[in-house]
């Protein structure tokens, strides 16, 4: 079989892969001006005077002053809604052909995120960049490089809208638009990828698994772990390497990998390379670009203009809702170790759009970040400021200490005896002392988070833990119509999702 690295890349894409000068401010201003120039004749561009911004001496600051920030509800109601009727040139030139349906972990309804041909092209360039970056890895599993890609994503059989557009999972859209040369390496193939029923799709992959030589697995950790467990159980083997001996890479994103690592290691006969990327429905934001990197490198020169809103009480309320005019910094203004919410403006017609993730810069020279959580997925009932990053790390440490797999968890905060308490729901099929596990998670959080430690001696009176079979979490996601694909179980439950979870547990 030909190697992926032997493929001749089109000249246009090869040019794009040559990174320009590494001045982050210059790269980002160049991107912004390119976006403004292309969208200046759209309804949005006319409303917010893009031509005037382009003529400004300080385009970045003028853009921030003249264009308001948006969350999904605001930009959808004011702008994107009309594109569903086929109206062209609303926030980006032309008609929108694809919409990514978001996983909707924090909201009950799916969100329609525009996906343009321009952003699909940008995504492909970033995929190739990430692939090329692997060549710099000292411990590269050479046998895996030329093998197949197992991409566990949404159904490529997309739903068609009345105005001629298509909607579905982002992974399904990407597979629908994959380059011709990728077909040779891509598994499970077009027929299985089109299957909408998640359980049927997994069962067919299990049946075909011995016929494929897989070097890479790409997808959300929870579902990829489930697939490997099914294959190992079905063929009564010890590890996944008994079926796919050349498996060397796991490419993941969307959620922190720490809680899943112990479960993955139990399924492997030898170490593999874990590669994190930052791909959202709104764009390909970054990827791990070098071996040993602390975080993911932001892509600053490929059609995404980024702003960073300090994640603090000045810019966000207690429920994680952003204020109307937040402080927004450009890439050259951020600080190491500070936590920010990300605003994006892209060639899919998102403008100063709050994606909902919180980031922390871990390397300013390489512009590398780690995802610390979601603006609405954190707990701070009494000032404990407990982030998803803290939760993931505590779970990872506890699972290593007890030698158990915890593929899913979620946390709830509530009033308790005139003060407050947290309750953890843990998915674990291994035998473990629940009280000992509760104590260790609590102790780790006290060590990881000073605010939490202080509040555990005062207003945060108690921490509870309930261990549930992994199947309970899966059944809940299935009941919500969010089984498999890009869907993730929310790490913090609030509002309607919390009420649904309580009702589900009371009847299970």
UniProtKB/TrEMBL annotation:
GO CC annotations on file: cytoplasm
Residue ranges of every copy of the GH3 C-terminal domain listed in the record: 389-494
Superkingdom of origin organism: Bacteria
UniProt name for this protein: GH3 auxin-responsive promoter
One Gene Ontology term of the molecular function aspect: acid-amino acid ligase activity
Lineage: Bacteria, Pseudomonadati, Bacteroidota, Chitinophagia, Chitinophagales
Chain ranges of the GH3 middle domain: 299-365
Coiled coil spans: none
């Amino acid at each position: 079989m030909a190697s992926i690295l032997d493929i001749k890349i089109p000249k246009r894409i090869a040019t794009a892969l040559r990174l320009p000068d590494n001045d982050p401010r210059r790269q980002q201003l160049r991107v912004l001006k390119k976006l403004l120039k292309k969208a200046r004749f759209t309804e949005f561009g006319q409303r917010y005077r893009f031509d005037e911004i382009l003529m400004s001496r300080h385009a970045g600051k003028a853009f921030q002053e003249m264009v308001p920030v948006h969350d999904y509800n605001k930009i959808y109601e004011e702008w994107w809604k009309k594109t569903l009727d086929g109206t062209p040139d609303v926030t980006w030139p032309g008609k929108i052909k694809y919409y990514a349906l978001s996983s909707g972990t924090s909201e009950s309804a799916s969100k329609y995120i525009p996906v343009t041909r321009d952003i699909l092209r940008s995504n492909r360039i970033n995929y190739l960049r990430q692939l090329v970056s692997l060549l710099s890895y000292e411990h590269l599993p050479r046998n895996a490089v030329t093998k197949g890609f197992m991409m566990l994503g949404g159904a490529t059989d997309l739903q068609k809208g009345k105005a001629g557009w298509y909607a579905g999972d982002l992974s399904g859209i990407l597979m629908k638009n994959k380059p011709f040369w990728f077909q040779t390496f891509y598994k499970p193939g077009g027929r299985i990828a089109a299957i909408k029923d998640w359980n049927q799709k997994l069962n067919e992959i299990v049946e075909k698994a011995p016929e494929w030589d897989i070097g890479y697995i790409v997808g959300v950790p929870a579902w990829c772990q489930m697939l490997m467990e099914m294959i190992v159980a079905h063929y009564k083997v010890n590890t996944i390497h008994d079926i796919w001996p050349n498996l060397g890479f796991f490419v993941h994103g969307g959620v922190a990998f720490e809680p899943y690592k112990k479960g993955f290691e139990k399924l492997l006969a030898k170490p593999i390379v874990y590669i994190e990327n930052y791909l959202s429905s709104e764009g390909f934001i970054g990827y791990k670009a070098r071996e040993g990197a602390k975080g993911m490198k932001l892509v600053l020169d490929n059609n995404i203009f980024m702003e960073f809103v300090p994640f603090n009480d000045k810019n966000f309320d207690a429920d994680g809702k952003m204020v109307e005019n937040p402080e927004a910094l450009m890439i050259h203004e951020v600080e190491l170790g500070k936590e920010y919410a990300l605003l994006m403006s892209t060639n899919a017609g998102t403008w100063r759009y709050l994606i909902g993730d919180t980031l922390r810069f871990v390397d300013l020279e390489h512009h590398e970040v780690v995802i610390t959580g979601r603006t609405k997925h954190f707990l701070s009932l009494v000032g404990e400021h407990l982030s998803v990053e803290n939760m993931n790390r505590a779970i990872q440490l506890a699972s290593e200490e007890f030698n158990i797999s915890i593929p899913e968890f979620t946390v709830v905060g509530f009033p308790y005896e005139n003060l407050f308490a947290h309750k953890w729901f843990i998915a674990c099929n291994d035998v473990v002392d629940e009280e000992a596990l509760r104590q260790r998670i609590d102790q780790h959080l006290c060590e990881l988070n000073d605010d939490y430690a202080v509040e555990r001696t005062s207003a945060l009176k108690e921490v509870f833990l309930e261990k549930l079979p992994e199947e309970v979490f899966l059944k809940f996601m299935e009941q919500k119509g969010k089984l498999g694909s890009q869907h993730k179980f929310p790490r913090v439950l609030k509002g309607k999702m919390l009420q649904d979870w309580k009702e589900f547990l009371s009847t299970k």
